[in-house]
Design brief:
Blueprint lengths: L3 E7 L7 H12 L5 E5 L15 E4 L5 H15 L5 E5 L3 E3 L3 H7 L6 E4 L15 E4 L9 E5 H8 L2 H5 L11 H11 L3 E6 L3 E3 L40
Parallel strand pairs: 1-2, 1-4, 2-3, 6-9
Antiparallel strand pairs: 4-8, 5-10, 6-8, 7-9
Length: 239
């Protein structure tokens, strides 16, 4: 069994809407005690709903990218010897048994996992099940998983560290920021067939993308009732 440090990023407006479904789905997936990182409040009004979860509140709000970066670093600082680190958004559902399945998968050398597979991101997979190199540049950050080495490597990348200084996009598109930083380090993003997560939000995603973007919903998500442990035959990584 791998040791995990994982959390969910959210905002006050979603504490009573999208977040409860996400937390319940993650529970069924094996991630039953995420740290909830709330951006924009000192004390959540719906605290009673979150009484069973560890909380980190940021006030005033630091916005999307900063909340995500601080959340990853906090997970690492609290659990510096964990095997895996995962950051989830607040607007998703997951397949059942996800954690157990990921524990059985071989983590890629010089790579990281994107659990959310958007249309077109399987590239030349040949419709094979399992992990594949992403063919689109950092699309989607519903759920990203890193090894301890990956967290350290990402934190050392200058592009990642100076991203908040970008006056145009420094507060959004963490998916592209992570992908670019790892690309600069010659690391690779891997996605899965079928997709292990699905987006549930409406209006705009918590990454501040419009949901009618061509990649907003996965077209290979097998459903929230799908049991990932049925995939236990070790999937090969397609180069």
């Amino acid at each position: 069994m791998k040791t995990w440090a994982y959390g969910v990023t959210t905002v006050p407006e979603r504490l009573g809407t999208l977040l409860p479904r996400t937390l319940e789905s993650l529970k069924q997936a094996g991630f039953d005690q995420p740290r909830v990182f709330i951006d924009g409040t000192a004390y959540p009004m719906s605290h009673d709903r979150l009484c069973c979860y560890p909380l980190t509140c940021r006030f005033p709000a630091v916005r999307t990218v900063a909340n995500w970066m601080l959340s990853l670093w906090e997970l690492y600082l609290r659990e510096p010897t964990a095997d895996r680190y995962a950051i989830f958004q607040d607007d998703l559902v997951a397949v059942k048994g996800l954690r157990q399945y990921l524990d059985a998968c071989e983590y890629p050398r010089k790579g990281y996992w994107n659990l959310y597979t958007v249309p077109g991101n399987l590239g030349f997979s040949g419709d094979k099940q399992g992990w594949h190199k992403a063919s689109r540049d950092g699309k989607g950050a519903l759920g990203l998983v890193f090894s301890r080495e990956a967290v350290v490597t990402l934190s050392q990348q200058q592009y990642f560290l100076v991203r908040p200084q970008d006056t145009r996009r420094g507060h959004q598109s963490i998916d592209g920021a992570v992908w670019t930083a790892f690309k600069n380090a010659s690391w690779t993003e891997y996605v899965h067939s079928p997709s292990l997560l699905q987006h549930t939000g409406n209006g705009r995603s918590s990454m501040e993308h419009p949901v009618n973007a061509s990649w907003a919903l996965s077209d290979c998500f097998p459903g929230e009732g799908f049991d990932a442990t049925s995939l236990f035959k070790q999937p090969e990584i397609v180069a």
